[in-house]
From TrEMBL:
Gene3D superfamilies reported for this sequence: NAD(P)-binding Rossmann-like Domain
One Pfam family cited in the UniProt record for this chain: adh_short
Alphabetical UniProt keywords: Membrane, Oxidoreductase, Transmembrane, Transmembrane helix
Keyword Transport: no
InterPro entries for this protein: NAD(P)-bd_dom_sf, SDR_fam
Protein name: Uncharacterized protein
Length: 340
């Protein structure tokens, strides 16, 4: 019997472990009434479960030590979360780091913070709003060289909205913004790496695939599906970059990290549940490791999807070369139509 790829994810192992423990302890308590449920034994048991769970949830570690003094790295969405940690790590390894953050003043302020946090690393901040093609172009025009492009920024929208250019917001920001940025920098990236931070959530895209008109979603907005579509498109993008141009492009799931800003616009009740579930997730540092792995490790595989610092099988839909090509063509068409 073949297990679904998501059964290989640390957060799934951790969840199963916790559920088994919960059910197990209820059964044991029901069968063995004399079970020594003293405070001491209960605390002991909880600590052991917590420690095992923590090591299951953490996943594999990748702590790069490579000297990258000669490299220029671009990180989008580096103000917070995974992007911020990656930018600090790149700067600590000696790279010249350019961060793309919304608002020029904010970008400069955050760049200063990251210089300090990386013990004097080189971090430059430029305004970048991926939900505006004109803004993406302005950002790209400032770039003279780049060796590693980490397409990390991303957002979740609960209700239907569109970008400045009239594209469904999650697809327009998470995929189209990064797609356009990569296109504009393509000539600088022939020997470089492009890393797309996708998500395990791409698995939920229905087998009919991506509807590029977003007509169904427009009428009855399914936020999770729209997010998943944008993340599937990012996997196709990496696959096609490698297939078309031989560029080392990678897509990845960073893990489940509950304490970033990603879920900030979710309803309060969902945020409370997410916080409670943080016990099955990773820290932001652990969540940055697969991005760093794809950016720096010789073991990462171009064109492939990664998770937990190794190559992983994505959904069947994500492996469809025909759909990857279609996604590329549709993205190009959409951008050309909007920038005319
Ligand atoms: N956390 C998880 O469990 C998880 C799981 C799977 C995948 N991911 C992916 O990992 C990536 C990083 O997420 P995170 O968890 O670190 O969340 P985060 O802290 O919210 O970071 C996302 C970053 O993207 C930036 N961003 C959003 N919209 C933007 C736009 N229009 N233009 C430019 N930047 C924009 C945000 O900037 P502002 O500060 O200006 O809002 C923020 O700095 C995302 O692509 C996310 O989809 C996360």
């Amino acid at each position: 019997m073949k297990l679904h790829p998501i059964f290989f994810e640390p957060e799934v192992h951790s969840t199963i472990f916790l559920i088994i423990n919960l059910i197990g302890s209820i059964i044991v308590r029901l069968i063995i009434h004399s079970w020594p449920l003293t405070i001491f034994w209960s605390c002991f048991y909880i600590i052991i479960v917590f420690l095992i769970n923590h090591s299951l949830a953490s996943g594999r570690y990748y702590l790069p030590t490579k000297n990258i003094h000669d490299k220029t790295v671009i990180v989008t969405g580096a103000a917070t979360g995974i992007g911020r940690i990656c930018a600090i790590r790149f700067a600590k390894l000696g790279a010249r780091v350019i961060i793309g953050v919304r608002g020029q003043e904010r970008a400069e302020r955050i760049a200063k913070e990251l210089c300090k946090e990386s013990d004097g690393g080189t971090v430059i901040g430029y305004d970048l709003d991926l939900s505006s093609l004109a803004n993406v172009k302005k950002f790209a025009e400032k770039i003279e060289c780049v060796d590693i492009l980490l397409n990390n920024a991303g957002g979740i929208q609960n209700t239907y909205s569109v970008t400045v250019d009239g594209i469904e917001k999650q697809f327009g920001t998470n995929h189209i913004g990064h797609f356009y940025l990569t296109q504009l920098l393509l000539s600088l990236l022939t020997n470089g790496r492009v890393i797309n931070v996708s998500s395990i959530v791409h698995h939920i895209v229905p087998s009919r695939g991506i509807d590029y008109t977003f007509s169904k979603l427009k009428n009855k907005y399914n936020s999770a599906e729209a997010y998943a579509i944008s993340k599937l498109a990012q996997i196709y993008h990496a696959l096609e970059l490698t297939r078309r141009y031989g560029i080392k492009a990678y897509s990845l799931h960073p893990g489940t990290i509950m304490n970033t800003n990603l879920n900030q616009f979710r309803p309060l009740i969902e945020r409370i549940i997410i916080t409670l579930f943080s016990v099955i997730g990773r820290t932001v540092e652990q969540g940055s490791m697969t991005s760093l792995y794809c950016a720096l490790s010789d073991d990462a595989k171009p064109g492939h999807y990664h998770s937990n610092c190794q190559v992983r099988k994505p959904s069947q839909l994500a492996l469809d070369n025909y759909r990857a090509e279609e996604c590329w063509n549709e993205s190009e068409k959409l951008i050309n139509k909007k920038i005319k």
